Amino acid sequence: MRKVLKIEIKRALTGWGFLLSLIPGMVCVLYKNYQIYVQNSKFEGMGYYLSFNKRTFFDTWMLGYLDSTVLYMFYFLGIIVALPYGISYYQDRKKGIIKNICVRTEKKKYLLSKYIAVFLSGGIAAAIPVIIDFLMVRLYNPIDFLRISGTVLNSITEWNVFIIDHLYLSAVIFVLLWFVFGGALATTSLMAATFADNFFTIQLTPFFVMMVLFYLPTVIGGNSQRFFPFAFLTLFGNSNPFIALGFSLVIVFLTFIVFISRSIRKDIL
Predict the structure, then answer these.
(1) Which residues contact 110 (CB under 8 A, 6 or more apart)?
(2) Which residues contact 146 (CB under 8 A, 6 or more apart)?
């Protein structure tokens, strides 16, 4: 299985889809930081007014900046994670590649390798813009100062205190959240490929899933928002990384069971 997995991961990370997937996220991040830089530059030379109005690091990183440019990241996330390799299982069937692979290795090993490759490529595509955003914000915000009032951290919880006290460790955790959820979201395209036989349906399934998860809290109401991606991927309000991990693992469990069970029973050759 190691050889098949290596081939699948290489295909996932060296294809045109992976490079293309980085464009939407990078555009959102670059535009967001350009806006912040322009806004902060207006306060330069204004003394105390600068220190009071200039956005802090906690406001300007992905976890605190709830501007439309960050909202675009959520709109595009389903497309971003599916582009690298989400459609590959469908393409392998159409091109007959599976026949060549399965005569050299077991069908289960191929399916498991495919699932892992899609998860990893989707997770990496989701995490890279967040890492770049962190580095860019640190570039123009090298010195931390914290103004709790008016920030996303003003409703102090144990997790928010941890973010304040352990900035870089919380940054690693935050990036991992995007990686795990992005990978889980990407695998919904594999699940769709066991039902649908249409390129666009399979490719856009993660996008539609993300849109449902994005708007569902407004329908449910109450305190449900913290259980959905917009809250836990921005660490907003009472959300915490355990909610994100649990949510992502549920998606992984469902997509894995459906993809593996249906593909094994189905004649994919």
Answers:
(1) 4, 98, 101, 102
(2) 56, 58, 153, 164
Contacts of range 105-108, beta carbons closer than 8 Å, 24 or more positions apart: 105/1, 105/3, 105/4, 106/1, 107/263, 107/264, 107/268, 108/260, 108/264
Q: DSSP letters of 107-151? A: HHHHHHHHHHHHHHHHHHHHHHHHHHHHHHHHHH--S-----TTS
pLDDT, position 48: 47
Check if the beta carbon of residue 108 is closer than 8 Å to that of residue 31.
no
Max intra-chain CA distance, the chain: 72
> How many angstroms separate the Cα of 235 from the Cα of each of 55, 65, 71, 145, 232?
18, 11, 14, 19, 5
Q: What CA–CA distance (Å, rounded) separates 37 from 180? A: 30
| DSSP-derived 3-state class of residue 232 | helix
Query: Token digits for 220?
Result: 């449910």
- Asked whether 81 and 122 are in contact (CB, 8 A), the reply is yes
* Global model pTM greater than 0.70: yes
pLDDT tens figures, 117-154: 999 999 999 999 999 998 888 887 766 655 554 455 55
The Cα 244–Cα 235 span in angstroms is 9
| Structure-model confidence comparison of residues 70 and 178, the more confident one | 178
Tokens of 51: 């220190």
3-class state of residue 66 by DSSP: coil
Burial tier of 232 (Cβ tally within 10 Å: 0-12, 13-18, 19+): buried
Q: Can you tell me which residue has the tokens 């144990």?
A: 158
Name the 3-class secondary structure at 224: helix
